[in-house]
Design goal:
The structure is a homotetramer. Chain A is mostly helical. The first copy, chain A, has 9 helices and no strands. Chain B binds a DNA duplex through helix 1 and helix 3.
Chain lengths: ~240, ~240, ~240, ~240
DNA sequence: TATGAATGAGGATTCATTCAT
DNA sequence: GATGAATGAATCCTCATTCAT
């Protein structure tokens, strides 16, 4: 049950080695599990866990089947490691950026929604969202982990954001939890769709960015206190 | 594990049995494919297509493997038939009700969202939504079918609904297609969640009905023309 | 283990009922096993025993699977019955005609070879030959039966025929048994070929009748006593 | 049940192992397909294609089912490869020897018939003959292949041989093609019989070599020009 | 008798996992 | 460490056989 060291797994461009004295061989050795996790994530997301062959994961990472088993004791453990590693690394990373933002509630709101898409929805982390939706029921232990590590913190953050606007009077008084759920829905849907119908040749129906803008527009108009209406304009050029 | 011969769900119209003591065998033979489709839907939704064993589908329908193959030539055809049968029947059925609605755009909007959940989201048809999201990439022909038969008609209908409000001046002028996508997102998300995390023991985080109400509230406030604000009140006792 | 009454199984045209008072129903009942045997023979010859489906045999005989099992307790017994019945009826019947022939040794020789082809080789009995060649090793008990009932009598008859010519001085003195084997070979080969390559679209390479004539010509020229050479002319028009 | 790594039969030329202790694994890997083809040939010939279990083929080659599928993608492809490999190697090999012969037409004739038996009829290639006769109708593509690669070349060569005798006046003028067919018949029959009735305990009726001699005697006497009669004596001790 | 729906043992094929090199 | 040949349990699917009607 090895856990890989912290590492920016999915980054396509690898900056020059910060500690040049370490052998390239060693770096490769450390990177291997991450390449395997990337490969596994991509294939699990595309085909589902059961329909993905270990051999294809290995091949995509450029190693042989046997090598994969040097790092992961079974297919199921590989899946768990993918989730654990990608969730903590990628999701958390996305969240970090979001968490630091300051500004008005409405601005924060719009920025956060956009950032969520850029940092999570359209990155490999979005694949995790689909993978979880499709596989949790086959791996109940993972569900708890996912709820604790991802869902709950996300919800708390979103809730804080809405709550801040309500407290300041910027937003109408609303049931924060339910509004959060209503806001999260389309984001999760967009992320899933990207790896589902959106990845099929027939699926170029949704332009995620413009749907995001429509949702921001709709939600902000729905949230803002009556006295402030209509302060949030439909973005230019978007009809 | 036998399910009742009086099948539930999918048949468009079942006349009262004209000859009450006609062969039980014959009645079974007619009911069998529907029972198998129900069983397949349930298991495909729960475990995914690849991880579901044909033998388990048959057992859930109270028959043996061999019997399943009397009605469906292969596992893949079974999946296709599940999609075709459940989609056309359930989706079309829900749509019918909606099409006949008369009233203000805002009322229609609220009714439609609630009806979608009652007729599709929380029925077995909701399982189709999750199933499709998880499996389309492995079955490109099904993707085309699903887009043509489900996504496109649904979108068209939602778009008409929004467009009616915009045309009458009840709603703000918005990009209808994008708003529709933003509206569909949380509904689809709710349906998927019901069969995903929501079905795990840790997943009782979302109360679908109240999220639906929150979304209606949010979206109507976001859609209504400024001059009418705030005409749509947060429903009593929901905040 | 019912055995069917003597009957001209394969004849497409059924002559007027010789005993008109017997119900057509009854005749049908008696004929059914024969229709099944005919169907089984045809399919076993075409596809082999293992690759033939019981259901196809029944369908070819115009009855259902269940009906076949009213007459034959298993697929293997059906095969045995096909062989027993077709061998005794068809082969023996062909032999009868041949056995009665009288004439000079050379004439008898030529006539018998031609008759063998007409009465056995190109009739359904020829199918038995192929069936036996292909399946005996899987059914060793049948081998003894076939040797006793078909091979040995045929060989004896052919041997008598050759021996008669040798004894009368018409033929050279030869090892009768070996010559018989050398004569039987191409006949059996022709019969098998008819149901093998000859039945494929690519197999129109052999015209059985002219090969037969070539063999008669060759063998007679090879058998006749030196003083009589060349008494047996190459048939007219055959070059 | 392992067969020796020094494979028998099919390889055109096997150089002495240059590095005697090179990986046994590697040597196995190269020998494996040949051992599997040998095993498949033996079992297909004995039981027929449909009645042979893949697992038994693998076991006879000393490996497991799974291993067979490393080398052949399906049972049907295995059959095709058996045909292709055994046919081109064994048939071609026999043909080579024959092609180089010099001498009188009668001598060539006798030598060729005997050689055919020694090089093809009584070797594993003889099994191919039976296999083809029994299975071609189920595999039309193979029929074409077999006609093009085996039947046609063989016939052409036999025809040349007879034609040479006719042209030189050694043989009577005969219809060469038909005589060839009449000559091929008993050879093919002997080969098939060896794997059919001849392989059953009751089937020791034919001594192939002496039948061959009888056929040579018979055919040569039948072919030689009248003026030369009787130049070809029945071989000593064979009558 | 005749039917054909139902069964489940059997066989082809796949693929996660092991292990000798 | 790395490989990939080998394994065999697991799964899809077929079809001989049974049996209620």
């Amino acid at each position: 049950m090895k856990t890989a060291p912290h590492f920016q797994g999915a980054a396509p461009a690898q900056p020059a080695n910060p500690t040049p004295l370490i052998h390239a061989r060693l770096r490769r050795k450390e990177a291997r599990p991450l390449e395997l996790l990337d490969a596994a994530l991509a294939l699990f997301v595309e085909h589902g866990f059961a329909a993905t062959r270990i051999e294809d994961v290995a091949a995509r990472a450029g190693v042989s089947k046997g090598t994969l088993y040097l790092y992961f004791p079974s297919k199921e453990e590989l899946l768990k490691e993918v989730i654990r590693h990608k969730v903590v690394n990628q999701i958390a990373e996305g969240m970090d950026v979001i968490r630091q933002f300051e500004g008005s509630a409405a601005e924060l709101f719009a920025v956060m929604i956009r950032l969520w898409w850029e940092r999570i929805g359209e990155t490999p982390a979005g694949g995790i969202v689909k993978l979880m939706m499709c596989e949790v029921r086959n791996f109940p232990e993972i569900a708890q982990f996912y709820v604790d590590e991802v869902i709950a913190p996300s919800n708390r953050m979103m809730a804080q954001m809405v709550q801040r606007g309500v407290a300041s009077g910027e937003f109408r008084p609303v049931d924060v939890q339910r509004v959060v759920s209503a806001l999260v829905g389309p984001l999760v849907f967009l992320a899933m769709n990207k790896h589902s119908l959106g990845a099929c040749s027939v699926g170029h129906l949704l332009d995620a960015k413009s749907v995001i803008e429509a949702q921001i527009d709709l939600a902000l108009n729905g949230l803002l206190a009556p006295s402030l209406h209509p302060p949030h304009k439909t973005p230019k050029g978007k009809q």
